[in-house]
Amino acid sequence: MTPLETALKTQYETDYLKWIETTLEKLRSRDYDSVDWENLIEEIEDMGRSEQRSLKSNLIVVLVHLLKWQFQPDRRSGSWGGSIVEHRRRIQEAVDDSPSLRPYLESIFDGCYLQAVKQAKAETGLSSETFPQQCPYELVEVMSDEFLPH
């Protein structure tokens, strides 16, 4: 490792914000030889994974609250409704900002439903058999501001 690589690695590990500022400065000035490429590539990869994790987490929250809404109608609350609205908004904003996330959203839908059932079971105390094995909602319904199950 060259002294420059060692200095960049140290900055990355000790002052992340300074590392970002330095990296941006080097990219803007086209000083490509001094860019900490290894960490920059890793950060860009992490950004993509972070977007996907956020999308998945928000989808699970919406599904959990839809299940609770449907299977515990006597316990419906404004906080459940508010959570559904908030997390739908987060998903929609992510897809609007990065349309390429839509196929990912579709590909994780069934797995997210299974995770939502586990969480809904834990939060409600209802048995697993209470909830359908296959998601009773379509993705378009889950994302629709007008949809709440009966």
Q: Approximately how much helix is present in the residues?
A: over 70%
Radius of gyration computed on alpha carbons: 21 Å
Distance between the termini: 62 Å
Low-confidence stretches: none
What series of H and E elements makes up the topology? HHHHHH
Query: Per the principal axes of the C-alpha atoms, what is the gross shape?
Result: elongated
Supply the number of helical segments: 6
Q: In oligomeric terms, what are we looking at?
A: single chain
Tally of structural domains: 2
> What is the total tally of β strands?
0
Find the structural class using helix and strand composition: mainly alpha
Q: Main sheet?
A: none
The pLDDT mean sits at 92
Measured by DSSP, the beta-strand proportion falls in under 5%
Organism: Phormidesmis priestleyi ULC007
Pfam family, one: DUF29
Protein name: DUF29 domain-containing protein
What's the gist of this structure?
The protein has helices at residues 3-14, 16-28, 37-71, 78-97, 101-124, 139-143.
List keywords for this structure.
150 residues; elongated; 2 domains; DUF29 domain-containing protein; 73% helix; mainly alpha; 6 helices; DUF29
Helix-strand layout with pairing:
Elements: H1 3-14, H2 16-28, H3 37-71, H4 78-97, H5 101-124, H6 139-143
Helix pairs in contact: 1-2, 3-4, 3-5
